[in-house]
Amino acid sequence: MICVGLITFHPFSEPGDDNYGLLYIGSANGGSGGDPLNLSLDLSSNFGKILRIDPLGSDSDNGQYGIPDNRVAVTGVHVFRSDIILQLRNRVLFGDMVNGELLHFNADNIPEGGTEGIRRMLLRDSDGEIKTFLEVIQQKNREQGRSPASRTDLRFGTGPDDQFFLLNKQDGTVRLLIAE
Questions:
Q1: Distance between CA atoms of residues 116 and 119, nearest Å
Q2: Which residues on neighbouring strands pair with residue 75, listed in sequence order?
Q3: Do 60 and 66 contact (CB within 8 A), yes or no?
Q4: Containing H/E element for 106?
Q5: With contact defined as beta carbons under 8 Å apart, do 35 and 27 qualify?
Q6: Distance from C-alpha of 104 to C-alpha of 92, rounded to nearest angstrom
Q7: pLDDT per residue over 150-161, tens digit each?
């Protein structure tokens, strides 16, 4: 059994787009307290991932759904090689689960220890306010009438056309990251 945190269709996809009609499924890591079985980093496991399926397809093992040709993996660390967000090109992205900070360093000049070379990445919400990822999550929680999350459980993902996604497993929401 997989605990699913989110099931949704791509909110910006239109008929004719590669993503149109594909179903996104955000799953938990199958453990309690920080992925003790390391399943979210295991690409042979569906735990701790964003899965993308075609509900009208039939090429899965059981023939009940389709598997898109352009598969992608999601983990807690991501090397961003795309040109879609130039500020992140060739950056290694990762997050601090407790305080919701997104961090990065140059993938072509890896720090030799300590924190030198590691930089913070702040986000702008829909109102243009600068926030940490945790603050973005907490704002959405409040809008939904839920208690604000106390931490993040971050996963990164990529999609067609170099789209870049952030997933917080705790609230199961997938967020599309775009350049200013």
A1: 8
A2: 156
A3: yes
A4: strand 101-106
A5: no
A6: 5
A7: 877 777 877 777
HEC string of 124-146? ECCCCCEECHHHHHHHHHHHCCC
Residue 69 makes CB contacts below 8 A (sequence gap 6+) with none
Q: What is the pLDDT of residues 42-81, one digit of tens each?
A: 767 777 666 778 888 888 888 888 888 765 543 467 778 8
Which residues on adjacent β-strands are paired with residue 96?
101
In the chain, how long is the greatest CA-to-CA distance? 51
Burial of 169 (0-12, 13-18, 19+ CB in 10 A): buried
List all residues 6 or more positions away from 167 whose beta carbon is below 8 Å from its beta carbon.
6, 26, 50, 74, 154, 155, 156, 157, 173, 174, 175
What's the pLDDT tens digit per position in 73-109?
A: 434 677 788 888 888 888 888 877 667 788 888 877 7
Per the CB < 8 A criterion, the answer to whether 19 and 159 are in contact is yes
- Taking phi over 0 as left and psi of -120 to 50 as alpha, with beta for the rest, 161 belongs to left
Q: Supply the pLDDT for residue 3.
A: 44
For residue 51, the one-letter residue type is L
